[in-house]
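Chapter review: from sequence to fold.
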Amino acid sequence: MTSTLKTLWKNEYFQTAVVIGLIVLVVFGFWYGSQLVLNTPYPALAVVTGSMCIPYDGACDGWTHPFTRTLHVGDLIVVQGVNPADLNANYPDSDIIVFHRPGNPDELIVHRIAAEEVVNGTIYFYTKGDGNPVDKWPNPIQPSEYDPWGRVSADQVVGKVVMRIPWLGQVVLFMRNSLGLPIVIALIILLVIVEFIAPLLKRKKSSEQQSQTQQQT
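The token string follows.
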């Protein structure tokens, strides 16, 4: 058994397969481990719109001022599951939450809590994008400026934003692009060709040349 494993480990293809398997295991392990640690099925998300961006000093491009207190398109946010009753609803210092949009549960929204109310024992939140519409955060806002979908119930809340990482979410957005996935697939195919097929063809050609040389001698 030991000798078989040693023989396999000397094989370049086996080593490459093991490395790829370990990378996949680490990625999936990190993702599902993050779900457990952060207590949410969405521990990390990419910001896809500029509704939370406050471009006080120029365009909200995420490159010229990536570390200002705002969320840019392409940021990666870390989300933590919480008890909705523990969320801070004291605007403008309130929590930024991730929630399923009322009326469209397949869509996730990242907005700040603007107000809170309790109806028949159920907690509801009114939300607002920091950059929407006229009175941007942290200016006082009127109820007419709350998000148009109305109240967000506690059971629609996924968690709150606890960290943002500039630029890293651009990778996710690239994958969602119509060209992103085909390019990644093409790179994987190219890697397979370089790592497996090209060396195999090279060895086959070398073997044929040696055979021809031996026949001539």
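Two observations follow directly from the output. The beta strands are 44-46, 76-80, 96-101, 104-119, 122-128, 152-153, 157-165. The chain is about 35% helix and 20% strand.
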